[in-house]
Amino acid sequence: GAGVSQSPSNKVTEKGKDVELRCDPISGHTALYWYRQSLGQGLEFLIYFQGNSAPDKSGLPSDRFSAERTGGSVSTLTIQRTQQEDSAVYLCASSFKTSGRYLPMYQETQYFGPGTRLLVL
Amino acid sequence: GEDVEQSLFLSVREGDSSVINCTYTDSSSTYLYWYKQEPGAGLQLLTYIFSNMDMKQDQRLTVLLNKKDKHLSLRIADTQTGDSAIYFCAESPPVGYQKVTFGIGTKLQVIP
Question: Nearest by CB to B103, which of A40, A42, A93?
Fold first, then answer.
């Protein structure tokens, strides 16, 4: 597709329920990132994928959060037993490639989806 | 760890210039970015600068980098109501994957 897409755009759920958030990165982008944006706070890094593997899961807030990526494309962020403090906008971003050396800017830039607004009642 | 700080709010009159400031702590930062987030939307990359540059101009946008003071600014000339948004400063290191650290965002309000 032309850009990063996320679904659903809005999700209201009850405390204790599980939710799944989906991200479709830009075609050809091998790197994928999940962030959380809470009210009045900046962007909080959650997890990064390079291909299907997640070398950095350091930002996941608790073991209720997990993410997977299949086929080097779509990623799903799952929150189990949701809590009210999980309410936030969950943003996904993708980039062309990452490596341990300098790359042209267009390959490094992260492109963001519109986000999923999660409200836990 | 890395930290990026910016003020929360800026209000300017339409037609005036806006200057949004940001400071960062990671001296190894190589890429410094400005992203724009309009209401209900994701982040859009506005512009970026390499750490070996002092200034970059792109139409109404001017980015200034003071590497010694680790200070980054975004100047928007002739600010329009359509510029009202939240502006995020961000930085990333030169090696490894692109773990970008974002600031909290500055909300720019343009008064007609």
Answer: A42
